[in-house]
Amino acid sequence: MINTLLNILVLIAFVAITAKLTKYMIEVKKWNLMKYRWYIAFIAPFIIIIPTVAFENLPKFVLQISGFIFGMSCIIFFETTRLMIEKKELKGVIYNNTIPKYKKKK
Questions:
Q1: Residue 77 near residue 41, CB atoms below 8 Å
Q2: How far apart (Å, rounded) are the C-alpha atoms in residues 65 and 50?
Q3: What are 55-105's pLDDT values in tens digits?
Q4: Would you call 95 exposed, middle or buried from its count of C-beta atoms within 10 A (0-12, 13-18, 19+)?
Q5: How far is CA 27 from CA 69, 81, 91, 93, in A?
Q6: Of 16, 29, 28, 36, which Cα lies nearest the Cα of 80?
Q7: What is d(CA 11, CA 45) in angstroms, rounded to the nearest whole number?
Q8: CB neighbourhood size of 37 (10 A)
């Protein structure tokens, strides 16, 4: 029970820290992750696939590290997409259905 609760807390902390890190990289460091988000999304599964196919018996920590990097890259992809929708650089579903259309001021 305690082990499961600890795993859930670690997962929540992992997602929160990665989301904050993404926001920091985009807004403070001015890294252009918006441009490369599809590359990140395409490469992410290969972080796990290539080592497991290339090597039969990988140590558990190698799989954990590759899973950690895979998770970070997926969260970075979704966070950059969310930030683009919030800045209205990308059209999102929420703005099409729920927010009324804004009229441009003349």
A1: yes
A2: 13
A3: 989 999 999 999 999 999 999 999 998 888 888 777 776 665 555 565 555
A4: middle
A5: 22, 14, 20, 24
A6: 36
A7: 19
A8: 20
Nearest to 73 by CA among 43, 30, 32: 43
Backbone angles phi, psi at 103, to 5 degrees: -95, 135
Tokens representing 68 are: 């950690």
The number of beta carbons lying within 10 Å of the beta carbon of residue 18 is 19
Tell me the domain boundaries of the chain. Answer: 2-97
Encoding tokens for residue 103?
């009229």
Residue with tokens 């859930």: 8
